[in-house]
């Protein structure tokens, strides 16, 4: 496939020229567009032929040469039919080129998103990324569909008309094109700020997408807090911005239209005066006059079309910038290797690790610990102390700035990122289920698993019983955010997925949302089965859940300030004991 062969890393050398860069991405389809441009050029030559035969026809009729006249008519019909066929072939070629190229671009975009570091995606607004994929991609499509073709064809059409007219009458041709430098100069002036407006317009479209996404995702909050008016106001302001930028663009387009209309008439006026004079004095035949008049249009059309194309391309360029901003992001490296755990090696080890999200404020400050095989360690600490950040480093979502994060004794940078993640099951507190059947959702743990294996995993996760009671059982499609399932049920499906994956390392971010006691018992049982024979790092919000952990790390401000098992930490009387007592102060029944 064309996409598979594209090596985007080589694009850097032509980084500054966005059109060349785009062409590079779609280079497998370029032969089609080149053929199409050749066909278009032939079509423009046909126009010249038609004008030429009109001239001959007029001259032969005036001379009374009937047989030459009939022969010319036959030629004319033949050429016109050829032009007609070529026109349709050309449309087909452009259609193929555009749809093939867009398919390629879209695949490339999605592939980029899949292979991008999580750190980049977390830093971008989802709505804006979707807007690049939709709105900006549409601009790329219109560029490929018509602007690119025009960009290649119009200069050719102009040159061919110019050359032909020049052979007929040099002075008139030159006089007719005196306006050209003025057209170029004014076009450049008027379109100067278009790209800037177009960029702002696309940015605002991205923002409006984001608001829409926020509103849909957070509808229960929006409604319960009666935020409809506030959100609507926010959206209106952004849309007003979209309209303003759109008006700015259209104003400039209108200016272009006015000046091209005025300037476009100039060649005709000049020709009418000077051509009339030449004709009256016998320097030009009537046929020449007709050929000239019909060909002037081809000389004039590029002059009027080029400013439009220039303005459209400026608008497209803003979208190219936004698109390449994403396509140029470095992807996760796949240069590393897969490693096996050697005897006496810790499964996970952090050695004096420092990490910050913004490159300034350290979130982890010299963190060190080893996790031997099969150990179950609880991570506790106040909100923002860095617990989830540890998970993100282990999964290779972010890279630490100092120290070493090792899995099976090898630094994360040595690992092939896919191989690394195949060793880890991440069960996070916000259980995301994909909008497909329950069976598929579980099977995402191991895509080649059989239905029996899926069912077995669901049984171990205490999910089977509630699944079979659903109207379509395992074939039930869960809602986009699985609103048709309870919190406990969603968690058990996520646990079944992790059981099926059967990875040796389990990172468990315990759900903070309270479940009823029956559901909690089912989830707890499922988790215990999942944890069996695995090395587990578990973020615990309810400290009762890690009482039996081999060790507990107490984090404060990015550092481990206490470690030991529950009894040892309680006895020490430090932060853990304080957190524990605080948590249970008002719940004497939970000890
Ligand atoms: N993607 C991010 N970009 C910038 N800062 C972040 C990001 N994620 C977390 N942080 C910051 O890093 C710090 C540690 O966050 P982290 O999520 O690791 O804490 P936590 O201990 O897991 O908190 P909680 O118990 O509330 O989930 C916090 O100050 C947080 O604001």
UniProtKB/TrEMBL annotation:
Domain ABC transmembrane type-1 residue range list: 34-313
Entry membrane topology: Multi-pass membrane protein
Domain of life: Bacteria
Keywords: ATP-binding, Membrane, Nucleotide-binding, Transmembrane, Transmembrane helix, Transport
One annotated Gene Ontology cellular component of this protein: plasma membrane
Record bears the keyword Transmembrane helix: yes
Family matches, as InterPro entries: AAA+_ATPase, ABC1_TM_dom, ABC1_TM_sf, ABC_transporter-like_ATP-bd, ABC_transporter-like_CS, P-loop_NTPase, Type_1_exporter
Residue stretches making up the ABC transporter domain: 348-582
Localization (cell): Cell membrane
One annotated GO molecular function: ATPase-coupled lipid transmembrane transporter activity
Chain ranges passing through the membrane: 28-49, 69-89, 151-168, 254-277, 289-310
One Pfam family named in its UniProt record: ABC_membrane
Protein name: ATP-binding cassette, subfamily B, MsbA
Source species of the chain: Caldanaerobius fijiensis DSM 17918
